[in-house]
Design a protein that fits this description.
- The chain has about 400 residues and is α/β, with parallel strands linked by helices.
- The protein has 2 domains: about 170 residues, Rossmann fold (3-Layer(aba) Sandwich), CATH 3.40.50.11350; about 170 residues, no CATH class.
- It is about 40% helix and about 15% strand.
- It is built from 13 helices and 13 strands.
- It is globular.
Length: about 400
């Protein structure tokens, strides 16, 4: 199987029935490895999970604060008092909007920081469009939900960042947010940066979160964001694992890879607010190529990602001399209220999580609007370069 064949498979999203034969598995895994006695058809899943895990380890090691924050969270693992991030936001008997993949992860960061500061156990309740443990395993901190029902709800979805003032002590936070003993269910879809100025977190994160005026430095919210993202070990299904393996092999054959992410709200396959329009596609591509210095096929691989099939077709057509890779996947919004059916939401979520992690593998990330590519960049400790800030 050569590079051109792999690119065609990725673009179509159709895995051949005979994919990953034993001789192909042997070409990517040493015969002296611990995997040599495993069924050859399982090689790709094991190998790519190891690649995702290694990537998280390498990114986490860049931050000296990683071990301290993880220890702070893990210290509370036996507490009967819990901060439980939840996507089950029910108002007047109806499930309400929580947020897309990036917004939910930002809400999880807020819940984790809050639990670390006040000494409560940190848990996650994420039931839809799929249960979170179907796609992620805990790393460093066991965030899985216990069976104890919640006895309090804290809803700060869409709230202003000043909902949590700066430099609040634990008892002040508990009183201000109405936190109770027992299990507190929290709904949030953004990172409340001011938590970083609370005494315990400020000491844990190397006292690097406050400037001379006492305000929180906005860039420092990316530090806990990256650390919390490292708590999620991606466990792709067989189909996504095969696609990821092919992508990774292509990537390893190239000296560098850049990701270009363009979000439009889809081509009508799912109901989301339009984030960008096709008229800006060329602006994004030109900005990405100028910034990265890629001008020919041999300069590197370009992973073009979009929720728009039309955008993928247009890019491949208008830039035929570049090494462009796309995935033939239907990306769906994580919140099923924004998708036509629950089935579409489930498959679209698996596709979105795969794409997010493949973007994280890339050396540079360029994007338009939305927080999806930013999440992928933060996971790797990179900067997401937005075209419209430079136009």
């Amino acid at each position: 199987m050569n590079s051109s064949e792999i690119k065609e498979i990725l673009a179509s999203g159709q895995i051949p029935d005979n994919f990953i034969p034993s001789e192909f598995a042997s070409s990517i895994i040493s015969p002296n490895s611990n995997y040599s006695k495993i069924d050859p058809d399982r090689y790709s899943k094991i190998w790519i999970e190891g690649e995702f895990n290694r990537h998280l380890d390498l990114a986490a090691k860049k931050l000296p604060e990683t071990d301290s924050l993880i220890k702070l969270l893990d210290k509370n693992r036996n507490s009967n008092n819990v901060i439980r991030y939840s996507t089950n936001r029910v108002i007047n008997g109806r499930l309400k909007y929580t947020g897309g993949f990036a917004d939910r992860m930002k809400g999880i960061v807020t819940a984790a920081l809050l639990s670390a500061e006040i000494g409560y156990k940190f848990e996650i309740e994420w039931d839809h469009p799929v249960e979170i443990t179907e796609i992620f395993s805990p790393r460093g901190v066991d965030w899985r939900k216990s069976d104890t029902p919640s006895n309090n709800i804290i809803d700060i979805c869409g709230s202003d960042g000043m909902t949590i003032p700066t430099q609040m002590k634990s008892d002040e936070l508990i009183k201000s947010l109405g936190i109770k003993k027992g299990v507190n269910m929290i709904h949030a879809n953004s990172i409340f940066t001011n938590l970083l100025s609370s005494p315990l977190l400020n000491r844990t994160l190397e006292k690097g979160s406050i400037n001379k005026s006492g305000a929180v430095k906005s860039t420092n919210r990316l530090i806990p964001y990256q650390i919390i993202l490292s708590l999620f070990q991606y466990r792709p299904r067989d189909y996504e694992a095969d696609l990821a393996t092919l992508f990774r092999i292509l990537q390893l054959e190239n000296k560098r890879t850049i990701a270009v992410h363009f979000r439009t709200g889809g081509d009508g396959n799912w109901n989301d607010l339009a984030m960008d329009d096709m008229g800006n596609l060329t602006k994004l591509m030109d900005y990405s190529l100028d910034s990265s210095g890629i001008s020919s096929f041999g300069d590197g691989m370009i992973f073009f990602c979009s929720d728009s099939d039309l955008a993928k077709i247009k890019v491949r057509k208008e830039y035929p001399n570049l090494n462009i890779v796309t995935l033939g996947l239907d990306i769906g919004h994580t919140d099923p209220k924004r998708t036509q059916t629950m089935g579409d939401a489930e498959s679209g979520f698996h596709s979105a999580v795969l794409e997010s992690h493949l973007i994280s593998f890339c050396d540079e990330i360029y994007c338009g609007k939305g927080g999806f590519a930013l999440l992928s960049a933060v996971r790797s400790g990179l900067v997401a370069n937005r075209y419209y800030k430079n136009s």
